[in-house]
Amino acid sequence: MEIMDIMTSLFDQDEVTRRVIAEHERKAEKKGEKQRTLEIAKSMKTDGLKPASIAQYTGLTLEQIEKL
């Protein structure tokens, strides 16, 4: 294998690694946002807001809200 082939292979592997890390970070951020939304909805429910209002403001389904 020539040096250019090796360098190209390493570059490709590095690019794949960067993409995997970026995707992992996006998923972690999305999971955190979802968790925060659930916490807010739970507080809203505890404060006596109607499930329909909670759904409207959080984007959660009525079924998700009932499980809180």
Walkthrough of the structure:
The longest helix is centred in the middle third of the chain and has 44 residues, at about 5-45. This protein has about 70 residues and is mainly alpha-helical. The mean pLDDT is about 95. It has helices spanning about 5-45, 50-60, 60-65.
Topology:
Elements: H1 3-46, H2 51-58, H3 62-66
Helix pairs in contact: 1-2
Q: Please indicate the percent range of residues in DSSP E strands (runs of 2 or more).
A: under 5%
Which descriptor suits the 3D outline?
A: rod-shaped
Q: What would you report as the Rg, rounded to the nearest angstrom? A: 22 Å
How would you state the average pLDDT, rounded? 94
Q: Based on helices, strands and strand pairing, what is the structural class?
A: mainly alpha
Q: Tell me the number of strands.
A: 0
Mind summarizing the main beta sheet? none
What's the SSE pattern?
Answer: HHH
Task: Kindly report how far apart the N and C termini lie.
Answer: 59 Å
Number of helices: 3
| Spans where pLDDT lies below 50 across 5 or more residues | none
What proportion of the residues is helical, as a percent range? over 70%
